[in-house]
Amino acid sequence: MLKDYFQWEIRSWSRAYPLWHRTLQAMPPEGRHALALGERDGGLSLMLAEHGFTTVCSDLNGPTEQARTLHRTFGWDEAITYEAIDATAIPKADASFDVVVFKSMIGALGSKEKQALAIREMHRVLKPGGVLLFAENLQGTALHRWLRKRFVRWDAYWRYLDPIADRDLFAAFASTELHATGLWANLGRSEGQRDVIARLDALLEPVTPLRWHTIWFGVAIKG
């Protein structure tokens, strides 16, 4: 199911899954309401539904038809609703959700101020004891940054996170567990190439400086 959940550069991004899976399994069985932000094609909403959560699948302009098709294929369409939601102004009451999740989304907000606003909104709509699951793009090495400027069309507005300087984004949460992964796999030209390179990255990651990584993932718990 990891391909359906994570959808691209799967081997690297899905390293978040064991931590997320343990966290979701450990949550109380009652309630179980979740919000997935920046979903586009609906992968993480599927993951939440399969863990027993009634889920709002959202994107800035609403999820794609591909998201709905994915959920119908696995029989979870009745557990998932669809909305257009701006993460910096979530139109939900305080303490509405047990879980909020996003992947590769807040970089598009373009500034740390807007990223901080979005995470404050996520914190606000979580119930006490609720959890934020996240995975986001990091700056990576100087080579990554140079290549993005030359070849990535959205580099001009995307703000990549720094795993040290941006820890304060999660200051409102009572506790966090944060990890960095990814190195060269995102330079692959196809999913097959990225999968092979990700296997090599796994050997290099233990001796790689934190700021060289390309993906930051974790769990933040609201007090």
Outline the low-pLDDT stretches: none
- CATH domain fold name: Rossmann fold
Q: How are the strands of the biggest sheet laid out side by side?
A: 3-2-1-4-5-7-6
Mean pLDDT: 96
Describe the protein's architecture and organization.
- This protein is α/β, with parallel strands linked by helices.
- A seven-stranded mixed beta sheet has the order 3-2-1-4-5-7-6.
- The protein is built from eight helices and seven strands, in the order H-H-H-E-H-E-H-E-E-H-E-H-E-H-E.
- Helix 6 links the parallel strand 4 (97-103) and strand 5.
At a glance:
By secondary structure, the chain is α/β, with parallel strands linked by helices. 33% of the residues lie in helices and 22% in strands. It has a single domain, classed as Rossmann fold, CATH 3.40.50.150.
Please specify the SSE layout and strand pairing.
Layout: H1 2-6, H2 10-13, H3 17-25, E1 33-37, H4 43-50, E2 54-59, H5 65-73, E3 80-84, E4 97-103, H6 112-125, E5 126-137, H7 142-151, E6 175-181, H8 191-204, E7 215-221
